[in-house]
Design a protein that fits this description.
115 residues, 37% helix
């Protein structure tokens, strides 16, 4: 784990169309960037739906689900406003390198290794 230099945190929900569209891109980013930790945090209220979607999509990276109290803490820590998808890239010192609300941009996906 000490090779991990960056952490890509993606807030999502199993019912969110753009979030589901983003999953293939996240799989590719996860596969191609071994010095990156990918973390998905769901705001689903229905844990069963969340687990079902994880199984269907075969999302193998770290998966968390946030309750309302967690979401308030995440808002304070990362500027998360309950709008998904929300993506944030941080370094080991929690310095924000990139943040975006909505489907991650094509430019970000193509230029990810430069960030």
């Amino acid at each position: 784990m000490k090779n991990i230099k960056k952490h890509l945190i993606v807030f999502w929900a199993s019912w969110c169309g753009p979030c589901l569209t983003e999953i293939p891109y996240l799989k590719k980013i996860n596969k191609e960037n071994k010095n990156l930790e990918l973390i998905s945090i769901s705001i689903d209220k229905d844990e069963k739906s969340w687990k079902k979607k994880l199984s269907e999509e075969k999302m193998t990276w770290k998966q968390l689900i946030a309750n309302l109290q967690d979401q308030k803490l995440l808002e304070a820590s990362f500027g998360f406003s309950n709008t998904v998808p929300y993506t944030i890239l941080i370094d080991n010192n929690f310095k924000v390198l990139y943040q975006f609300t909505g489907l991650i941009s094509k430019e970000f996906r193509q230029g990810f290794k430069r960030i």
